[in-house]
Structure formats: C-alpha cells, structure tokens
Amino acid sequence: MAINLQKGQRETIGAPKFTIGLGWDTNSSSTGSAFDLDASVFIMGDNKKILTDDFFVFYNNPKSPDGAVEHTGDNLTGAGDGDDEQIIVDLSKIDPRATEICIVVTIHEAESRRQNFGQVRNSFVRIFDSATNVDILKYELEEDFSIETAVEFGRIYKKDNNWKFEAVGAGMKGGLQDYLNKYN
Description:
Blueprint: E1 3-5, E2 10-12, E3 17-26, E4 37-44, E5 56-57, E6 69-71, E7 85-90, E8 100-107, H1 110-113, E9 120-128, E10 135-140, E11 150-159, E12 162-172, H2 176-183
C-alpha cells in the first residue's frame, strides 16, 4: 500500500528502479486555450546545480547521459485519468556525483495563454515500482497556486547512502527558464 505524503514529508524510496508518475486535470474553458503541462527533471550534485546541461531531462532531452533517468514523452493535453507524464528512474546507473533529482512541472506558454496553476486541479506525483506497478508513495498537491506557472512537485535526494523523496509543493511565478537559471 502506498504512503500518502503531506507537504514537507520525507520518505525512503527503498527501490533502485521505479517510475515517477505525474498527473493533473485542467480547466481549459477558463482561458479558451488548451493547457500543455510539462514535467522536467534536474539531476544535481552537492552544490544544488545541474551536473551538466545533459542532466536536465525533459521532452527535448528525454534521457540522462548515464541512462538513469528517462522521460517517456510529452503529453500535450493531459486528457484522461492516471499519469499524464512519466519518468523512469534506475538509481543503479546514476552518475556518482548526483545527490538530488528535482521534479518540476511547468505550463507551456503560460504567459501568452494567460494560464496558471490556479486553473489546474487534482495534481499529484507518485513513485511506483516499475515491475509490479504498485505505488510506493504518492503526494497530492492541495494548495491553490493562483499566480504560479511552475511548481516543484518533489525531490529525490541521497542521504546516508539512501535515496529519499520529499514532497515539496513549491510554486514559482515564472517558467522553465527560471528553474534553469536557479539550477545552472
């Protein structure tokens, strides 16, 4: 049975191979434009900076150079139930310099489409065993991000040689470039 996390809660993952599933529902009628949310992953070292540009994994760079993190593709609509985007992780392959994996979701062209996370509901991040499809943990974002156009859903970090997940749920008014500036 999956552990349901609250904001700020941390939990050991306990599996070297897993999938990160991210999901959301949108209210497209509020702006007249379709929503395109994008999941991105920043693989960082002790200095909280991306190891190299290739360790920024997203729809245009779907796989990290060590083969440890792979984005399965961009969902342009978010339609349907369940995960809207997934990222496959194999920590047995991760670069030894890596100590943190930051999971961010941004709204594509949010400013020009006048969209924000206040128009997004039922957002969640879950980590599940890739082999059995059984949830290990799940974090449902309950905050109302009325002006934010990007949200850090969670982070996976290494502590005492164990990989843990922290439910972050922190919004940012800005886009993917703002996260690139922060982590580069």
